[in-house]
Structures are given as structure tokens and as C-alpha cells.
Write a sequence for this structure.
């Protein structure tokens, strides 16, 4: 068993047990190491807390769980996936498409677009962290939304939604094509929302062969 | 005037005037330098030919023009944009959306997905070449297709199309989400084609404020 008295490697602690923001900072540093070494599935809350030299309960206290710690520490996502998913699922399914677009653009706009290119770079790399990121985005965001809708072809629908959102982010924050780069959020919700809605709940009429 | 006898910098010629594949190779190397130094608009066919030590007519002979040279040399695109655009515009406008998707996936699949991540890296960089790439993709492919359709909001439609295509490429070739990563082309044409068609010719019903 790890205890709160265990010290992190490196010996940089200032002679007292970490508390408050120190604990949070130590957990983020430890999480980056452990997720990078073991991937998303292989990293445990206990191993991260042990590496940070704090009690495992501190992960829940400061982040609400492994998912949110991963989102904050490794992805530096500007949102908590669990909170986003439950907010999206509270509203009407008929408006889910445009609500996802509105939420997506609002969230990334708030970082002044600075965080989205970093996410893309992570996604495009070929290390364990990229695999962890893919699993995380699919398992913890897309699949949770799709599962609730109970549509056919859930994995395909999740991928189609991801394609439109990633592409919208690429055009708005990375390639910066105008007018999409500076278009108002309601324009984007109106223009792209129906695409998302069809991918979520529409009839896809796929060819038989597959 | 430059003449075919001008030598490229570096003195690596094997003592004879470049001909055939030598000329083509020299033009590609020169084009990479000149486009990188001057951007797409600033680079002239004459400057590139001069740098390569060949006559400017060789650019048309080997590549059909500045656009195709840029596509081959700098973007390493696996297609000639002019040829793609005219092929797309020959068919019915009603099926343009799915024909674009089919063409996009067929083209990049043929490179075994290897070229798409390179395109994304170029697009995400912040040098002159990235600006040149953006201008090139918009001016020479998207706008040419959109102009022919004569729809409202042509720039917005071009950006929306770009967002879905780039996102589809990201999911299929970079993030490699299944089942989209290995889905058959006809599945993708059926699933994504209607999105493209709406972006091209559909009623976008944008809010008044913009």
C-alpha cells in the first residue's frame, strides 16, 4: 500500500507533505509520466498517486477521477469530458447535433484556439500517448453520447461525428480558412449542426456489402 | 532571359545539360526552394526554371504549369488539381458531393495513407509554405468547384467542404479510428456524400446577424 508519506522520485519536495495546489501540481506531473509510460488503460490512479507521493483519494478530490486527470494532465483539454457528456445528454436528442457543435466551438474558442493544434499534434504522433488519446476520446466522449442514442452502427456514427468535429477544428484553429475561422458560433451551429444530427440519428442508408 | 544552358547553384550537374528525368528532378528541387522562399503567389515559373537551370518551357512540358508543379514538388499531392477539378465538374451537380468523397478517398487510399499526414503537417506549420498551401487548396481546388455551382456564400461553402474532407482524412489516415479507417469507399461516399452535397448546394439557413 502507498501512503501519503511516500516521497516522489527526484527529491524536490520542500520538506513537507504536499497540500493544496502542491498536491494538484504533483499529481499532474506524475500523471503525465505514468500515462505516457503505460497508456490510458494501463495507468492506475494508485500508481499515479504513488508517483506523486500522495494518497490515491487526492485524485478524486482534485480531479474527480482518472478520466478528468488524464484530460487535464496529458491532453490539457479545456473541459471535463464527463461534465460535457452529461450536459449534452440532458437536452433533447433532436437538437444534439447543433448543441455539440456549439459546445465544441465555444470550448475551443475560449482557449483562443491555442489548445486545438496541440491536441492534433498528440493525435498525429505515434507513441503510446497518442493511442491513449484515441481510446480516451472514443471511449469517454463519443461512445458515451452514441450509446445513449441507441442508434444502429454506433462506432461508425462516432467516427463520422469525430471527422466533422476534427475537421471543423482544423479549419477554424489550424488552417484558419476564412470565413470559418472567424464565423460566429451560431453560424457554425446552423451550418454544421445538421451534419452532426444526421451522423447521430439519421438514416445512413449504407450499401449492403458491409 | 534564362536559357537552357544556365546552371543550377551547387554545381552538382554531371557535365551535361539536364534532359528528361534529370530536368524533372531539377525542377522539383528548384520549385521546393523557390516556393518556400517566396510563397505560392510570389514564386514565378521563370524563377523556378532559372534556379533549375532549364528553360521555362520545361515547366509546362513536364508539369503542365505552376499549379501542378506546386502540387507535385511542394505538396507532394498524389493528383493534379486541374485534372481533378475538371473531372468533378463534368458530372451532374446533384451527385457532386458523393463524387468528391469517392475521389478524395480513392486518391489518398492509393498512397496507402502515407501522404495525408504530410499534408496536415504542412497545413499546421506557420511558415510561408503553409500560407502557400492554404491559398493553393482554396484558390485552385475548392473555389473552382464552388464557382461553377454559383451558390450563395461560396467561401463559407468551400470552408465547410474543406472541414469535412480534412476531418475525414484525419480520422481515416491520421487518427485511424475504426471502422472509418478501413471502411469501403462506397460506405464513405454514402455516409459523407450527403454532407458534402448540402455544403455545396443545400439551403444553409444561416442566422441573419452575419
Amino acid at each position: 500500500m502507498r501512503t501519503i508519506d511516500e516521497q516522489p522520485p527526484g527529491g524536490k519536495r520542500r520538506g513537507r507533505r504536499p497540500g493544496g495546489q502542491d498536491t494538484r501540481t504533483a499529481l499532474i506531473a506524475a500523471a503525465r509520466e505514468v500515462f505516457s509510460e503505460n497508456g490510458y488503460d494501463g495507468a492506475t490512479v494508485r500508481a499515479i498517486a504513488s508517483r506523486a507521493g500522495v494518497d490515491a483519494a487526492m485524485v478524486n478530490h482534485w480531479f474527480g477521477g482518472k478520466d478528468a486527470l488524464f484530460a487535464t494532465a496529458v491532453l490539457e483539454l479545456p473541459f471535463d469530458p464527463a461534465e460535457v457528456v452529461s450536459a449534452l445528454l440532458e437536452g433533447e436528442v433532436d437538437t444534439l447535433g447543433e448543441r455539440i457543435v456549439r459546445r465544441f466551438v465555444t470550448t475551443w474558442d475560449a482557449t483562443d484556439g491555442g489548445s486545438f493544434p496541440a491536441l492534433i499534434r498528440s493525435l498525429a504522433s505515434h507513441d503510446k500517448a497518442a493511442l491513449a488519446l484515441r481510446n480516451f476520446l472514443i471511449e469517454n466522449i463519443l461512445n458515451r453520447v452514441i450509446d445513449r442514442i441507441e442508434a444502429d452502427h454506433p462506432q461508425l456514427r462516432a467516427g463520422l461525428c469525430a471527422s466533422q468535429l476534427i475537421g471543423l477544428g482544423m479549419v477554424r484553429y489550424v488552417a484558419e480558412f476564412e470565413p470559418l475561422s472567424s464565423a460566429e458560433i451560431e453560424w457554425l451551429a446552423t451550418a454544421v449542426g445538421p451534419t452532426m444530427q444526421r451522423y447521430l440519428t439519421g438514416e445512413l442508408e449504407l450499401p449492403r456489402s458491409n
